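Trying the structure run again after the queue cleared.
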Amino acid sequence: MNTALEAYFKSKDAAVQADYPAGEGSANMSIADVYSVMDNTLSAQMYYNKAISILRKTTDTISLATALLNAGEEYSKSKKYENALAYYKESGILFKKANYLIGTAYNLGNTGMLYAEQGKDDLAMKNINEAIAILEKLEDYYAISDYLTYMSDIYLKRNNWKKALGYAEESLSLAQKYGLKEQLSNSNLKLSELYQKSGDFRESLHYYKNHIVYKDSVNNIEMVQKMADIRTNAEVAQKQIEVNLLNQQKKTQKIIAISSIISFILVLLLAFGLYRRYKFVHKTNKIIANERNRSNSLLLNILPEETAAELKETGKVEAKKFESVTVLFTDFEGFTSYSENLSPEILVQSVDYYFSKFDQIIEKYDLEKIKTVGDSYMCAGGLPYKSDNHANLMVRAALEMLKFVEDSKSNVDFNGTRFNIRIGINSGPVVAGVVGTKKFAYDIWGDAVNIASRMESNSESGKINVSENTFELIKDNFDCSYRGEILVKNKGMMKMYFVNQRLN
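Done. Tokens:
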């Protein structure tokens, strides 16, 4: 969070120096968004108001409307409903004037949720239903699933348990169909509450267990624990060898001390003993060297070579900024619904099958794997060593990943689950470093990473979606299709492109 704030403050200062009010206003809005996530309400409200004041002096209507909408949501969280409603009303007028449907839908939905909080159920239902109607046309199912839970609450307050249950089940159905991970947890929790109030505690417990399952990423925890166990076992083995060697050295020194007092005849035995000691030490040193090489190999599987060397030399790693890096995210479509119907062993085996091949592909193009989280795979190009060709190499790797996923569907030798995949790519500056002092993890931060994630979530099945930043770096080498400007949460409208194929 602190790194993100620092980047946004620098962005704001740059916009001020460039006399670019629209950029300054957007930067203040992003700062407010971060404070909102951190639950720092006072700072969030202050920077939202700064952003609104600056954007009112520009012609950027959509950014102004978005800042008003986000500010209203922040005031609603702190139960300042009158302030929130005033912002929502102005935001709604601006979105309608600009004919910006997605903004209008979110405005209606947030207004409906505010009315629901106030107990104004009829107004809440009217606004939420209008929002859902627009979002269905735009196929924004996450927001629909979220609003349906509010509709369930409204009908529950009216003692219409059947309709409340229907809306909650519809919310869960959408979440399952489109793999909406966070909403799967929320919908199951809502159903658990409904069945608890109806007295059906067995069904309530069933949905509550599902809520817990989707809330925690068990697979990821297991993978991290396995890596920690491997490293711990290697360290314990090396320590045991050192203890054994120390004990043997003490025994040998005692033998030498006793042998020096014995007669000339025993000197021959001493020489023989020394020779055997030499053989033992030589063999032991070889074992230690092998164990050290194993430890180094394990460390290089976790950290880049340069970072691992710095960590071994100084015991810590300084964060570094890279001005131009390309970041890739992948996500398996419908992974959550698969996880409900498959055993953990088959699910992990299937994911490992794909991720192992992805590892080979990025190594081929000299890219750096950052991490995997559940069914998401993240890598970057242009670090830890700077490169002028990182964007082109990343897109070539993405095309190979996509081909491998498609080829796997017809691979009769593969017994695991076949997935469809979405890929998103963005280029820009990042900060890279190692987090924590135990179980080290190399990671990257910055707006470029967030946008790459948005590129993936806005991609389509079997497609590679790239930002305008990446397109400018690859357009001479790849055939791309312009998708137009698409709304990105907290970023406004962004140009996006599908990569079709590599040009000869």
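The longest strand covers residues 420-435. Worth checking whether this holds up in the mutant runs.
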